[in-house]
Amino acid sequence: MNLESAAKVLGVHYQTAYRWVRTGQLPAAKVGSGYELLPEDVERLAEERRAQARRAEAGSPDWVKAQERLYEALAAAQPEPAQLVVDDVLAAGATPLQVCDRLLAPVLRWLDDDDLLLPGQVAAAAEICEEVAGRLAAPPRGRPRGLAVVASPAGEGHRLPSLMATVALRADRWRVHHLGADVPDEDLLSFITEALPDVVVLSLIVTDGRVAEAAARLTAAVDVPVVVGAAGRSLEELLEAVEGAVRAGAG
Amino acid sequence: MEIEQCRMDLESAARALGVHYQTAYRWVRTGLLPAVKADQGYRLDPRDVEALAAARRAPRPLSYTGRRRDWDRLREQLYEALLAGDETAARRVFERVRLGRVPLLEQCGELLTPTMERLADAWAGGELSAARLRLAIGIAERVLALAIGWVPAGSRGLALVAPSEGDRHRLGGLMIAAVLRDAGWAVCRLGAIPAAEVVAVARRTRPAVAVVAVGETSGLEAAGALQARLQTETGIPVLIGGPRQDLAALADDSLTIAVRLPLSG
Hints:
The complex is a heterodimer of chains A (about 250) and B (about 260).
Chain A: H1 3-10, H2 14-23, E1 28-31, E2 34-37, H3 39-55, H4 63-75, H5 79-91, H6 96-112, H7 119-136, E3 147-153, H8 160-171, E4 175-183, H9 185-195, E5 199-203, H10 209-221, E6 226-229, H11 235-250
Parallel strand pairs in A: 3-4, 3-5, 5-6
Antiparallel strand pairs in A: 1-2
Helix pairs in contact in A: 1-2, 4-5, 4-6, 5-7, 6-7, 7-8, 8-11
Chain B: E1 8-9, H1 10-17, H2 21-29, E2 36-38, E3 41-44, H3 46-57, H4 71-84, H5 87-99, H6 104-124, H7 130-150, E4 158-163, H8 170-182, E5 186-189, H9 195-205, E6 209-213, H10 220-234, E7 238-241, H11 247-264
Parallel strand pairs in B: 4-5, 4-6, 6-7
Antiparallel strand pairs in B: 1-3, 2-3
Helix pairs in contact in B: 1-2, 3-11, 4-5, 4-6, 4-7, 5-7, 6-7, 7-8, 8-11, 9-10
């Protein structure tokens, strides 16, 4: 099936179907000058959208309700219902950045504080959130604003904060090399020297002094702007800080 | 199981099942095939053997009828994409494969595992920095998770995947999740958590089957320990799997458990 027929089945504009291909929601392979799709993939997305339309209330996403649904799915360690909640808020117009700031992050804090859950359940929930966030982290199309390297220094084992930073930066049209959590100093330094990014974003939420020191050491060692994202800071603020750092570096 | 009914030995059972002796032995160890240990090896009830044989004859969804793929070219494309940290190009390779309706099992075995091994070799040979390898693994994890999401979730029941102690290779657990998804399971993947917590989660979520993920062959001992503990403390059938183990056998065993569920219930 080509993209035009798919758009017709989905009842959307060709450009919209194209965007879904770009974000990975709709798997398609480039054949010659166009795209080829599996009819069952198109039909499944169409069915999901009909279901979403039935669930969606007019206007903007209901964040409180979405948080409650996500909490239920994560507490039951069920990846599919969790993904469904995210798909629903995206369909209601939410941006990937809002999904991180207003859905994933608050629900994870909620789960962390819940005494009724086993530590293993919280860990399973974090795995699910990582998969969900990974799907949100579609690389930007068109000309990127520049290259960013995202990592958490050694000692910071939380994987989600850096991944959410990558989601936000890519949504803001940055090309991102995502190195993940707990990256040893020397690996990060040599990579920055080799890749020559426009900005480095270090993500940390642990309040361990050694991690903060590692971040400070790295900041001093490279002549690229470094932005340190910390706990309690929203992704909006992080993007503003990146903007400021890059502008200051250029000036 | 009553001892007097257990008159079949493991060799005859393997013959009746049409599998290698070692396979039958693996099924006994994982609790798939009930057996009692006698002086001269295992003794089995022929009715159990026949039930398992019947379960294995039941239709299964893993047949692949698509045309042969040009795996060499796809592997090369994926390798280049991962090496360059190009997530879009890596996605494209998986989308192409999805269009051929290639099962995730085959995607893991033919595409992902060899490519990751080649990257690991390049790193070991000093051609690739640790950071580049890290970048590549992260992309592979996200792209595989995306590809898993393209396969509709089945209704077979819940399968729990837990890494063996000390195993930090998430990709291995994801590959197991992929193969189980193909086989129609809803999959819950646990992160690296202590054995006691794996047991606690299994008790609470009551999966139909659990799989202990093992990355390197050296981790098999730890995996066996977790398998034994989970099986003893929860009574849930527990399999061992990983990219260096036989993923096809894992899918097959999980299906056999699924078909047997009503019998053992």
